[in-house]
Amino acid sequence: MGKNKKLYIQMFSIHGLLRAEGMELGRDADTGGQIKYVIELANSLSTLEEIERVDLFTRLISDKTVSMDYSESIEQVNNKFRIVRIQCGGRKYIRKELLWPHLDEYVDKTIKFIKKEDSIPDIIHGHYADAGYVAMQLSKFFGIPFVFTGHSLGRSKKERLIAEGIKEDDIIKRYKIDKRIAVEEEILTEAELIITSTDHELKKQYGKYENIGFPYFQVIPPGIDIEKFYPYYHDILPELKKDEIGTHAKASVLQELNRFFLHPDKPIVLTLCRPEERKNISSLIKAYGEDRELQVMANLAIFAGIRKDIHDKDENERDVLTEMLLLMDKYDLYGRMAIPKKHDFEYEVPELYRIVAEKGGVFVNPALIEPFGLTLIEAAACGVPIVATNNGGPRDIINNCKNGILVDPTNTKEISGSIKSIIADPEKWTEYSKNGIMNVRKHYTWREHAEDYILNIKKLVSEESQIGLSDKLPGLQIGKRLVNLNYLIATDIDNTLIGEDNHRLKDLIQILKEHHGAIGFCVATGRTVDSAFEYLKLHNLTVPDIVVSSVGTEVYYSNNRIYDKGWDSHISKNWDRKKIMDSLINLDFLDYQEEDTQRKFKISYFMEPGKDRLAMVHDILLKNRCYYSLIYSHDHLLDIVPYRASKGKAVRYISYKWEIPLENMLVCGDSGNDEYMLRGDTLGLVVSNYSRELEHLKGQRNVYFASQQCAGGIIEGIKHYKFIERATGEVFANETA
Fold it and tell me: Which residues, at least 6 apart from 257, have a Cβ–Cβ distance to it below 8 Å?
């Protein structure tokens, strides 16, 4: 990276309920601390001189059940930070576990966005496994360093849910946990940098993964906005008068708490979290409910997400909220326990912490395991001492801040005893309060986080590092090349590009080399990808930018064969290979081809011409409700592929994904399996040695029948359509054309 080059960073947090103002933290399982983390990280990065722009990508949602803010395609947060919303999987809000089948669509649309913006990022950073998958695919295409932050990990979640008594099959079905874990394992082999919040996260959570030895890890604790989470005593000082918004927020919080408390002047024991089993809210209520002395000393306030009606929450959250109410009733905590239904994160939560501090209270995080504990440092910054689980990130926080006590979250007596020891001892309370305020500003500011982050990613994009990246990022630069191309030649291989008459092949190779900067090169073949590359190498052909193989069922990029998972996802709908083969098993005129020609999305037979044979195959497959396309070529090759697949459809998909207009594509073929590619808005070229299956295309618009064979015919088509002139503005001067 040049000394003065500023960085363009693309960050991804896919689930969609994400906006710069009025964050709905705790609304559901998708609206946890990750939302706040990514927004504040992007905001902080955008203030640095080294940053040109930060784009935070999420899913576009247009759904009456959520705010219309989430349907705004571009949200300009400041002059260097935008939230970019891209649609995938429809427009309705769906929970993150159901997004997996739609992520390849998200990748494709992000590529289109990058091309339209004409700006390729320097760094791609995925947050959580789904966004990590998207960032990883984009990194492969563009040769850009890939950074990942997990926030939480699948293996730990799976272990926790099994420990809670949930069956493994149910976990897989609801949370798609095995898919998530497999993606996380792949991410560990592809990411250049993984950022964790704590040493515990690195050792205890990533340590469960097989591929932990691959990436470089860096512990960078998240920060908080210390202008928002300022100490409680600032409000006492007359020269630091609170603004009207803050005054209203504080009054609103007090009014809400006072609805519950008979003695509102008592210290408050506060917890603030989502209603999840692992947050272990029940243990805190039991600790409070079983300790009469603590009930006399303090009130209990539990802010467990945002809700209107418990019945509307999903099953897990509904169970937690219901248990809270049952425990409240069991211990008769009415008048001593508050369970508000909502809170405004932007203004009311900071005031809530300061109210707790003013009353001499304590913040408690009783989670069974806490990856970090952002609410702990928010509370500490406002001057609230903390009692926190000894499992996870709070160990680092209390070690750095010296502002509270670690407890066993399953030991209710230890929880209540620790809370009482702080509330009952003014000197200890003051020491913990002061330490928290001072040390949060030392260890946990976003400014510090952003500067540490920049130091690490600069290493990834430096000129020296780029050399090393070429081994790790396959197909380096292919995405950068394709987003800068507007013209493409796509040709079949056998009997079109290469055949019996190859005397013009060297001329064609030279043309492709001369105009490489303006014109892409694609082969579309019935061959497998391995066979295609071997055959091209045999004839000393330029490595194509794109290979459409196996009759349009697979798409690969560059000599590193980056597989297009977007095309895979697109054509897989309703494809049932076994059902098709079973349906045709009794047709004796079908001869199953050798295994090395068969593919995931292609079933290949030999079939000699015969009366109504093709119609019989169609009839059987239709009766069995199979979804397919039949491609018959050269009077003996029958390929059955998904109904969404063909070489022609693959070429159109490439046009869509890489924003290369169809009218700027010269497509060349010789047989029936090229027909879908030749028809339509593309510039079609049929070589003179074509099969009779294409005879009916004569006279159709944009289908030129050349007088020369193979490569010579392609060169003739280039001249006929003035393709070089269109792509480069130069006159085509090939003397032998």
Answer: 264, 268, 299, 301, 338, 340, 355
Q: Which residues of 112-131 are buried (b: 16+ CB within 10 A; e: fewer)?
A: bbbbeeeebbbbbbbbbbbb
Task: For residue 97, give the nearest of 208, 194, 172, 205 by alpha carbon.
Answer: 172
pTM: 0.85
Measured CA to CA in angstroms, residue 77 lies from 19, 54, 81, 257 at distances of 9, 10, 5, 33
Residues comprising the chain, all counted: 737
| Whether the Cβ atoms of residue 675 and residue 697 lie closer than 8 Å to each other | yes
Summarize pLDDT for 495-539 with one digit per residue, the tens.
Answer: 999 999 999 999 999 999 999 999 999 999 999 999 999 999 999
Two structure tokens written together for 337: 């326990």
Q: Cβ(407)–Cβ(388) under 8 Å?
A: yes
CA distance 85 to 420: 47
Q: 383 and 289 in contact (C-beta within 8 Å)?
A: no
Lateral strand order in the sheet of 487-491: 562-563, 554-557, 546-549, 519-524, 487-491, 665-669, 683-686, 703-705
First and final CA of the chain: distance in angstroms? 44
Token pair, residue 356, equals 């707790």
Burial class (CB in 10 A: 0-12, 13-18, 19+), 149: buried
- Residue 485, C-beta contacts closer than 8 angstroms, at least 6 positions apart: 518, 519, 520, 545, 658, 660
